[in-house]
Amino acid sequence: MKPPKSLPGIVDVHVVCGRDAPPNSASAPDLLIEIPHGATLTDDFTALAARLKSPLPDGLVDFFHVNTDAGAPELGLAVAHHFVAAEPTRTVVLMRCRIPRTFIDCNRRIDASPEEYRAGKLTPGLMPWVTTTGDRALLRAYYDDYVAEVRETAASLGPAGATLLLHTYAPRSVDVEVDLKIVENLRHAYQPEVWGTWPLRPMLDVICRDPDGTSHAPAAVVEQLRAELAPVPVAESATYPLHPSSLAWEHVMSRPGRALCLEVRRDLVADPFEPFAQMHISAAKVDGLARPLASALRRWW
Q1: Is residue 2 included in any domain, yes or no?
Q2: Which of 3, 208, 259, 281 is the most exposed place for a label (fewest CB within 10 A)?
């Protein structure tokens, strides 16, 4: 199996090897960390928006910043380094998507229906402002390339290999319809007098319970994470379920007990949390979460 490769504008691949890892270990890594919403820079948005012909809503970059997983790439890389420092024979591959979910979401089963997305409390796979045939074809080609690289890397994991699907989310659950008025409605939702009325999300939420309530989380890893982070609570699908319309479902079901999907509240890594801007990610905050998370992941081995 060939080692995974970066594709400009689509996926960045980082291989983090322990000092005693075998040669060519990137071809069969021990741990895959996927950041499917890793396009977190304003330049990620503007570069792709410039290629599209569809009339985009004014100020759509505001939605990009609210909706992308700021801090997840930094946290994932820190976890990888802490993990191999403690497990020097191991190799981690981190895959960071650089396609903004503002246009197409690389953590969605792209053929799912709107009803399926709503049932999973998920935003759409392909956004409604992408209207031209050419734009749809371009974005679908990017999506297909990204998903193929991730699937190939996941398939290269050995029987003891594991996957961490890492996300960050905004501190509060803002219930705004994803339509052509998204920017106007978001700006209203984030007004100070409105913002505080939205439900506060858990600091960490393991996305593991399917629509029937069955948990697919690796119990030992979650137990250790709770112990490492105490008294910080770790929830289980308090925000939304693990749903078949997401590609996280595919990872978890294809590797039972060896995949963990985790949401981290964005204000725990950003300094400060700013909804409509590229956020500054605090190295100290990231490290404070990366150490216990890396320690918990070691329970798999």
Answers
A1: no
A2: 3
Count of structural domains within the chain: 1
Domain at 220, CATH number: 3.40.630.40
Chain centre distance of CA 190: 23
Identify whether the C-beta of residue 269 lies closer than 8 Å to the C-beta of residue 281. yes
Q: What is the pLDDT of residues 30-63, one digit of tens each?
A: 999 999 999 999 999 999 999 999 999 999 999 9
pTM of the complete model beyond 0.85? yes
In a domain, 3, yes or no: no
Strand-pair partners of 215: 209
